[in-house]
Write a structure and sequence with these properties.
Radius of gyration: 39 Å
Shape: elongated
Oligomer: single chain
Number of domains: 1
Helix content: 55-70%
Order of helices and strands: HHEHHEHEHHEHHEEHHH
CATH architecture: Up-down Bundle
Structural class: alpha+beta
Largest sheet: 4 strands, antiparallel
CATH class: Mainly Alpha
Length: 486
């Protein structure tokens, strides 16, 4: 039996092709910033929650759990990990003994003349027949029943390319695991972001409803004052315009809330027709920030995409070692035991045990080509790892700046809401006292509405930036609650 070294190289290259495909998860993760992209693997999930009449109460933790169970992008990564595990099992088999058993029986007819045993040939073996000559009825056509049983063993004792393939298989399997964990972090960020967006929409709807009620009261008072002759028609027209404007705002924010809830349902595997009740409130808490150096060290230790890239380098090193090892000999052990019975002849056993040492004699051009190609891939992978280190540093610092900036924006937005509320209260008193017409009052209402909208959006951006910081540090799945605040 001949065991080809080229087969090990083929196995190894197959592993590399599958393993390297996981590096695309970093690029695909970036597409998650655009959840409506048709090429985004995280845009969608398996619908696991059928429609029910009762509204579904959904917390942030429950949404994350559902997303991790049903997201399509994550399932792709999980299936990839299973595929790499199967590839590794194939490589492990190279080092294990391969034992096969076979048995067959059959009725055979032989033409001795066609095999070269004609009358002249048979006469040469006359001494083998009883009486010193072939029987009179001797026929060129013979028949027999042959029964065989065979047990065969093959094992590779040494093959440098096979050893390199085994190392690559282990690195590829680890790489697929880290790719899956990277996908899990992406799912948490996607689902949490969609949940926070829905909470922000709910806040927008509440503000719009409150502003609409105030506009209705203002319009009623203006109408009564105009009917009583104490206010001009212009005041009533202003109040009507403000009322209709608030009605438009409410319709717009309710429509946006409905669309964002559909997005959330799609992310977590809930039917789009299912009614949801979000049980969590929009979180707000100050985050005790670490220094950029501390966060960078944490990211190098915790980020799964960084661990994935490190294992990619190990795979390419194994591929390079495999190419160089093609110059080395291989040693294989082969044996079998066979038992044969022919018609009425006694059973006879056959046995062989052999070792085969193979030396490549003239294969230098191919070996050099494989070595140069693998060296180029290894150099590129090492450069990608170095670039990722710099990119992680950049992401951590940028995320930290966003958190700091958004925290200050929330403080300013809160102050603006307080000031606008106080200004509206004062202007309401002035209008009721007859000091002003309702133009300053309408303006104050619009200012408060804008301040409240800005506060809701600032709070949303602050929470999203904290999620991004946890993602950059590689601890999002474990600590998203810590970063958002209980």
């Amino acid at each position: 039996m001949r065991v080809s070294l080229r087969s090990y190289s083929a196995i190894l290259r197959g592993l590399v092709v599958v393993c390297v495909s996981f590096t695309g998860f970093g690029a695909r993760a970036a597409q998650a910033q655009n959840p409506t992209s048709a090429t985004n693997p995280y845009w969608g999930s398996v619908t696991a929650q059928p429609v029910s009449d009762a509204p579904l109460k959904l917390s942030l933790d429950d949404a994350v759990r559902r997303g991790l169970s049903n997201n399509l992008g994550l399932k792709e990564a999980e299936n990839g990990e299973k595929a790499l595990h199967g590839e590794k099992n194939e490589v492990e088999q190279v080092f294990l003994p391969t034992i096969t058993a076979s048995a067959d029986t059959g009725y055979y007819m032989h033409n001795l003349a066609a095999l070269g045993f004609g009358p002249s040939t048979i006469s040469k073996f006359s001494g083998l027949f009883p009486g010193g000559k072939p029987p009179v009825n001797f026929s060129d056509i013979t028949r027999d029943t042959l029964t065989d049983g065979k047990l065969q063993l093959t094992q590779v004792l040494f093959s440098a390319p096979a050893i390199a393939a085994y190392k690559a298989a282990g690195a590829a399997e680890r790489s697929s695991y880290y790719a899956k964990m990277t996908a899990r972090g992406e799912v948490v960020q996607q689902v949490a972001g969609a949940y926070l967006r829905a909470l922000a929409d709910a806040g927008e709807v509440e503000n719009a409803q409150a502003q609409l009620k105030e506009a209705q009261v203002l319009e009623e008072h203006a109408h009564e004052a105009h009917a009583a002759g104490t206010a001009a028609n212009l005041d009533e027209l202003r109040a009507q315009v403000q009322l209709q404007t608030q009605q438009q705002v409410l319709l717009a924010v309710e429509n946006q809330q409905a669309k964002d809830l559909i997005l959330l349902k799609r992310e977590i595997g809930v039917d789009p027709a299912q009614d949801l009740i979000l049980t969590d409130q929009a979180p707000y808490s100050e985050l005790a920030l670490q220094t950029p150096e501390e966060l960078r060290a944490l990211a190098y230790k915790s980020r799964q995409d960084y661990q994935n890239e490190q294992n990619q380098v190990v795979v390419y090193k194994a591929l390079h070692s495999s190419a160089r090892a093609e110059r080395l000999p291989s040693l294989t052990f082969f044996s079998y035991y066979q038992v044969s019975t022919v018609t009425t002849v006694n059973t006879h056993g056959n046995f062989i045990a052999m070792g085969m040492l193979q030396f490549p004699i003239f294969n230098e051009a191919k070996v050099r080509g494989d070595e140069q190609a693998s060296q180029a891939n290894l150099t590129a992978s090492t450069a990608a790892l170095d670039e990722l280190r710099s990119h992680i540093d950049e992401q951590v610092r940028a995320a930290l700046l966003d958190v700091n900036a958004n925290a200050k924006l929330v403080e300013v937005a809160r102050s603006n809401v307080d000031l606008a509320t106080h200004a509206l209260s004062d202007e309401t008193d002035r209008v009721n006292a007859g000091v002003d017409d309702n133009l300053p009052l309408v303006t104050a209402q619009a200012t408060l509405a804008a301040a409240q909208t800005n506060l809701v959006e600032s709070l949303y951006q602050y929470n999203v930036s904290k999620l991004a910081l946890a993602r950059a540090a590689g601890v999002l799945e474990q600590q998203y609650r810590v970063y958002l605040g209980e």
